Amino acid sequence: MLYGCETWSLTLREERRLRVFENRVLRRIFGLRRNEVTGEWHSVELNDLYCSPFIVRVIKSRRMKWDGHITRVGEGRGVYRVLLSKPEGKRQLGRARCRWWDNIQMDLHKVGCGGTDWIELTQERARWRPPMNAVINFQVS
After folding, report:
1. Is this model's pTM higher than 0.70 or not?
2. Structural domain harbouring 77
3. Is residue 93 assigned to a domain?
4. Are residues 62 and 44 in the same domain?
5. Is 86 exposed, middle or buried (0-12, 13-18, 19+ CB in 10 A)?
6. Does residue 113 form part of some domain?
7. What is the pLDDT of residues 3-34, one digit of tens each?
8. Cβ contacts of residue 30 below 8 Å, gap of 6+?
9. Distance CA 76, CA 89 (A)
10. Phi, psi angles (nearest 5°) of residue 41
């Protein structure tokens, strides 16, 4: 399910769909049913039974780890140039699509490192590790 998730550029809609899929699978695994009176799922019990991080958190933390690795590789490698390149041509009309590094900047902003230069931050592992670890712990809405 998560093959290549380090390179995904997720929108909020895709994140929501992944959470819905994950909850459906967990309900099937744990055999949870809807409450007949309220019609709600027993989500509190689901969260208590499932102690692993949620899928969106795993994707974001893997993306941050991969980002640190790629930016430390150096400018001579092709994947680094692809990371920082700006696509040529025009985009379709409407809202611009979110790029991969836009997702990195949004994740850093959520954990309180939004104003810093993330490429410079990744060069030192000791400085990069705290924000990278904080991404897996913040709440996914």
Report:
1. yes
2. 54-84+99-141
3. no
4. no
5. exposed
6. yes
7. 888 888 888 888 899 988 988 888 788 776 66
8. 45, 46, 49, 50
9. 25
10. -80, 155
